[in-house]
Amino acid sequence: MKSKNTILLVGILAVLVLVYLGVSYLGGDSRSKSFRDVLVDIDKDVVTRVEIIGGGTTTTLSGGPEDWKVELPDGSSKPAKQGSINSMLSSLSTIEPSRIASRSQDKWTDFQVDTTGTRVKVFEGSNVSLDIILGRFGVEGQRSFYTYVRLADENDTYVANNFMSMSVNKDPDSYRNNEVLRLKKDSLTSISFDYTDSAFSLVKSDGKWFIDNTLADSANTASYISGLSLVTSRSFATSSGNAARSVVFGFSNQDDITVSLDENGILSSGYNTHEVFSDSTATGKLFKGRSYFMK
What we know:
The structure is a single chain. This protein has helices spanning 2-25, 82-93, 108-111, 218-226, 280-286, 290-293, and strands at 49-54, 57-62, 69-71, 77-79, 97-102, 118-124, 127-140, 144-151, 157-161, 179-182, 188-194, 199-205, 208-211, 214-215, 230-232, 236-237, 243-251, 257-262, 267-269, 276-277. By secondary structure, the protein is an alpha+beta fold. The chain has a nine-stranded antiparallel β-sheet. The chain has a nine-stranded antiparallel β-sheet with strand order 14-13-12-11-17-18-19-20-16, with no helix packed on it. Strands 10-15 form a two-stranded antiparallel sheet. The N and C termini lie far apart (111 Å).
């Protein structure tokens, strides 16, 4: 009798094992073996190239991981900001699938994971380490957001919680070096303005600023110098001509930096020799008249 009970228990156990295997491997579970727990597995320190395709254009970033360049629509290229690319790659790395939205190609258009989405291809050497399409962005409540995503060679569309598709910018200008000037005010010792009709200088002595040996207006001078800690612009120009105005910044611990403005209002800077800018706001921060610094 005991032997029969043992055989019965073994039989029941075998049936349970078969049921478990059937559920796990033949479907019936929304997180079946075909559900990907990981969509993005990239190492930004070895990424060499990124292609961002969307809106009828392709933005190509190449030369990584140490000498990044961004290719422009006219076929030329410019040095790219390492920080902007690192930020974009870090954002991609945050993509984690929370659930499958659809396994049908018929739903691609609804979730904008077809040609209307943004396709991102990441290369590590000659290997494609990521080929993903970023689709429709959505918001739930006041603090929860998500983006529909799909691996380019698969049908499944996933919901990636807490990821913004907009964090991967398609505009090549967003990866260019947009810094006109960056300086540390504590090491600044002189500022010399040279205009077509006048010239004057500010010199720092014993912690105070003087304009042509006269004490300068402390509030305006401090405001001007504080505004120079970082001057940026996204208004890129193509070329600059002869300088009509210039300002030279002298330092106690580095070479001078000259910023020039040509007759067409184009800014060029010794701090960033690869770019020129057409930006009245940046120009207003950099170039001031003598009266601005007078008491």
